[in-house]
Amino acid sequence: MKFNQPLYDYVLQATKTFEESLDTRPVTPNTVSVKNLSCFEEPLSKKGAEALDVIKMLYETGEPGVVSSRGGRYYGFVTGGALPVAVAANWLAASWDQNGGPSVMSPTSAKIEEVAGNWVLDLLNLPKKSDFSFVTGATMAGFTAISAARNRMYKQLGYNVKEDGIRNAPKIRFIMSDEIHPTNIIALQYMGYGKSELEFVPCDEQGRINPSLIPSLDDHSIVLLQAGNVNSGAFDPIDEVANLVKDTGAWLHVDAAFGGWVRACHSRSFLTRGMERADSWALDCHKWMNVTHDSAIAICRRPDAISEMFGVQAAYLVQGSLREPNHYTPELSRRARGIEIWATLKHLGKDGFNDLVERTCNHAKYIAEELEKLGFEILNEVVINQVVATMDDDKIDDFITTVQKSGKTWFGPTYWKGRKAFRISISSHATKKNDVDIALSAIKEAIS
Ligand SMILES: Cc1ncc(COP(=O)(O)O)c(C=O)c1O
């Protein structure tokens, strides 16, 4: 295969220009750049185009329409900015074009994912022998873990759901807070449940489940908790709920999409107390771990529960000598996404990870203090990287739009406990004190 030097040289230069612009470019694209994306709407050509011309068009027309979520002033949703080491690992893995499913298709990916998964268990102090699954996002990580939970629960009840289906199966109850992230409900809907079949438990003012309102549990119950509310960042009292689950035969799952990483931070890991007692966990890696999209991990304490659900058997699928990644994921073929996780963990180490979480949480605390000085009402206890703030209800929409249009920072709206509010999530290694100050200056300008 001939190396296409001009093509890759161009991409390297384009990446350099983009990365170097991140500190100064507007956080969101302007309307002209978005309008210009219509240039992509051309008929599919018969003859195709030179690779370099394709990539030039992608850069010249596509790059101005990109959101600078990788920079230090993007505080929307819960968005990590990919570390350079993660981007570089992603490139190399893309160039290898490995199928991360069967180990015979990529011993390198199979081995590296095994190591990366075990490092995550070590970093988060979760049971050492747990199984793990590398998937696209926390939605799929939740789906993977909860499907495995249901399958294992049915097995223990003597019912083979994979063979006999869900229609005549004994009822399993799903119990969660009314603040559970909606993607858990979607995951259950994939699994065939309607929302009206799920049991929702009220929360306190921070969005933490009220354990005293959890119904009695048994071996037909799956409890879903949350480590990190998407608005407030609050943690369900996992230890207390684990006490209720203990000896009942119920399964405890924790959606720890971003909050789970707080376990790697010395000063705040107490917030996750009891998380290690759960049966399964879902964590995003493209959020606070700062790896490239898309990336998440489902973890399960019960040996083989994930592979019993998802392991695909077929005569042509040969067993390699290594761990078979595809036995643990809903997909058979997929990209080798564990490689970026390995590279990021190797680069940061435990100290670097502690520092990443600590630093971003401190920025959130600082921004909340400054917002309060400016007259905003902070609606949440700022326990980690999330700030929910509000002002006069009639003015908030205009305020958010004005800040977004400034191009200096970006955060979005929410409702919190019946109040219209805005939410700030600081999840990127790229955020520095100077970025937060620029964001605050945009906020000051918007209210002046
Ligand atoms: C608590 C929680 N769970 C699940 C998700 C869904 O994650 P993803 O978008 O990676 O599927 C999110 C996203 O913000 C979240 O905050």
Write a structural description.
The protein is α/β, with parallel strands linked by helices. Helix content is 39%, strand content 12%. It contains 13 helices and eleven strands. It has helices at residues 5-21, 31-36, 51-62, 84-96, 107-123, 138-156, 161-164, 182-190, 238-245, 305-310, 338-373, 396-406, 433-447, and strands at 131-135, 173-177, 199-201, 221-226, 251-255, 280-284, 296-300, 377-378, 386-390, 412-416, 419-425. The model has no long low-confidence stretch (mean pLDDT 97).
Features:
3 domains, four-stranded antiparallel sheet, 11 strands, alpha/beta, globular, binds pyridoxal-5'-phosphate, seven-stranded mixed sheet, Aspartate Aminotransferase, domain 2, 448 residues, 13 helices, Aspartate Aminotransferase, domain 1
Order of helices and strands, N to C? HHHHHEHHEHEEHEEEHHEEHEEH
Our measurement of the CA-to-CA distance between the termini, rounded to an integer number of angstroms, reads 60 Å
Average residue-wise pLDDT? 97
| Unique bound compounds | pyridoxal-5'-phosphate
Find the CATH topology of the largest domain: Aspartate Aminotransferase, domain 2
**Which regions are unreliable across 5 or more consecutive residues at pLDDT < 50?**
none
CATH homologous group name of the largest domain: Type I PLP-dependent aspartate aminotransferase-like (Major domain)
**Number of continuous helical runs:** 13
The main sheet comes to: 7 strands, mixed
Report the structural category. Answer: alpha/beta
Largest beta sheet: strand ordering: 1-7-6-5-4-2-3
CATH architecture term of the largest domain: 3-Layer(aba) Sandwich
Radius of gyration: 23 Å
> How many strand elements?
11
Percentage of residues assigned to helices: 25-40%
